[in-house]
Design a protein that fits this description.
- It contains six helices and 14 strands.
- The strands form four sheets. A four-stranded mixed sheet has the order 4-1-6-5. A four-stranded mixed sheet has the order 11-8-13-12. The chain has a three-stranded antiparallel sheet with strand order 3-2-7.
- The radius of gyration is 20 Å and the shape is globular.
- The longest helix is centred in the N-terminal third of the chain and has 13 residues, at about 55-65.
- The protein has two domains: about 5-140, Alpha-Beta Complex (Nucleoside Triphosphate Pyrophosphohydrolase); about 160-300, Nucleoside Triphosphate Pyrophosphohydrolase (Alpha-Beta Complex).
- A hairpin with a 2-residue loop joins β5 (about 70-85) and β6.
- With about 300 residues, the chain is an alpha+beta fold.
Length: about 300
């Protein structure tokens, strides 16, 4: 068995397109693919560049890989894919979108990371070697997850950082909203935030979200859907140690419910959360909020 000895991580945007017959648009990985083995069938999409909106990335990649123009209909979900690329284990955080084709002519990519494109019936797709994002989108059994390596890969340039995070609009049976206050010494200190945070290497977004909510509030949640995909680019910010950082955050906001609230407790010691509290929607909207919390509370849900 091939053993990976290091970790690498990236963020991508991927799209599910269907035609009138219900077939799914898939592309086949070429020998130049740096994400999955050659011959693997994938959703159109690819790497999110530094500062790029994942929604723009998936439309750009759709055109490059298939010749088709498209538009984002909605955020469908988020998932993580682990693939052994010796000597590394690669973790890709994927924001998954429903896409609508608006024009163009179908053709394969030339000289790129894919070499074939086609509309595939779901039953036929189930017989092909598929990427994790395809199986996730189609509800098929997921590929086997490889073991995590003990060592981390050498860090990239310190001035460029991409971070994937999962947050949630969490409510209780009374309709109150769960918010967490950022601790001193962390970005947005003193402001109220959506519960959630960055996912760990090898962790699926929904699993990471449940873990974060438990750590920040002591609550157990049921995730019911996806609300939005967001990104923030701060090309000239300062890290916690005072170093200059080009920071790009990609966030997916889920919808979640606490059916049986328990006493609120911050379980993570010396972490980024100072306290957690329930608020009515008007009271929450009146608080000093982070940008993503303010936008989420102001949206329809």
């Amino acid at each position: 068995m091939t053993v990976a000895t290091g970790q690498r991580r990236r963020i991508g945007g991927y799209g599910l397109c269907r035609d009138e017959a219900g077939r799914v648009l898939l592309v086949r990985a070429s020998a130049r693919s740096d994400r999955v083995p050659a011959g693997t069938w994938m959703l159109p999409g690819g790497r999110v560049e530094q500062g790029e909106d994942p929604a723009d990335a998936v439309v750009r990649e759709l055109a490059e890989e298939t010749g088709l123009a498209g538009e984002v209909v909605r955020v469908r979900d988020a998932a993580a894919e682990l693939v052994v690329r010796p000597p590394f284990l690669d973790h890709t955080d994927g924001v998954l979108y429903d896409l609508r084709v608006t024009g163009g002519a179908l053709r394969p990519e030339v000289g790129g990371t894919s070499d074939l494109v086609g509309w595939v019936a779901p039953a036929e797709a189930a017989t092909l070697p598929l990427s994790r994002f395809v199986t996730h989108a189609l509800g098929l059994p997921a590929p086997v997850t490889p073991p995590l390596p003990a060592e981390a890969a050498p860090p990239g340039p310190a001035r460029r950082v991409q971070r994937f995070a999962a947050y949630a609009l969490v409510t209780d049976p009374a309709g109150r909203v769960l918010l967490t206050r950022n601790a001193d010494g962390y970005p947005g200190a003193g402001r109220w935030h959506l519960p959630g945070g960055g996912t760990d290497f090898g962790e699926q977004p929904r699993d990471g979200l449940r873990r974060e909510i438990t750590e920040e509030s002591g609550q157990q949640v049921r995730i019911t859907g996806v609300l939005s995909g967001n990104h923030v680019h701060k090309p000239r910010t300062v890290g916690r140690r005072g170093q200059p950082v080009d920071w790009h955050g990609v966030m997916v906001v889920f919808r979640a419910i606490v059916s049986e609230p328990t006493p609120l407790r911050v379980l993570e010691a010396d972490g980024s959360t100072a306290e957690a509290a329930w608020f009515t929607r008007p009271a929450g909207a009146a608080l000093p909020l982070t940008g993503i919390a303010a936008a989420t509370l102001a949206a329809d849900w």
